[in-house]
Amino acid sequence: QVQLVESGGGSVQAGGSLTLSCVTSGYSGSCMAWFRQAPGKTRGGVATIHAVTHIAYYHDSVKGRFTISRDNAKNTVFLQMNSLKPEDTAMYYCAAIQYCNYGDWSRNWPFAGAYNYWGQGTQVTVSS
Questions:
Q1: Can you list the pairs that 72-77 forms with residues at least 24 positions away whose Cβ atoms lie under 8 Å?
Q2: How distant, in Å, are the alpha carbons of 76, 102, 113 from that of 52?
Q3: From the CB of residue 63, how many other CB atoms can be counted at a distance below 10 Å?
Q4: What integer pLDDT is reported at residue 68 of this predicted model?
Q5: DSSP state of 52
Q6: pLDDT of residue 6
Q7: Which residue spans within the chain are E strands per DSSP?
Q8: What integer pLDDT is reported at residue 29 of this predicted model?
């Protein structure tokens, strides 16, 4: 049974930083991502990373501010978020693909439908 457990959310002022963590159990795949969903909006991909190549992709809105990383020995994926803005406020979810085809993943990573496993989410609130 695959489980993803997020932590690290909280409330910060604009310009601040947070680091989210996602610990996995029962998962041996290669492709994981962070998504976020604000009230009334669809869930969208923020960043993704491939476990073997460590290639990462980011949504344009977070490039240069967020960094995704993965510690395979600890079965943990991180999302370092710097220079946070009020528009970053959302529930953040960790997600994983069961069987990761590199080509499909590189094209479809921002779409929730590409992922098989999800965590329960952790709230990030950024005040101005």
A1: 74/23, 75/23, 75/24, 75/25, 75/27, 76/21, 76/22, 76/23, 76/24, 77/21, 77/22, 77/24, 77/32, 77/34, 77/49
A2: 14, 11, 22
A3: 10
A4: 98
A5: T
A6: 97
A7: 3-7, 10-13, 18-25, 31-37, 44-50, 56-58, 66-71, 76-81, 90-96, 117-118, 122-127
A8: 87
Q: Tens of pLDDT along 40-87?
A: 999 999 999 998 888 999 999 999 999 999 998 999 999 999 999 999
Question: Percentages helix, strand, coil for the chain, rounded to the nearest 5?
Answer: 15, 50, 40
Report the C-alpha gap between 124 and 18 in whole angstroms: 9
The per-residue pLDDT for 81 is: 98
Tell me the pairing of strands 122-127 and 10-13.
Answer: parallel
CA 76 to chain centre: 11
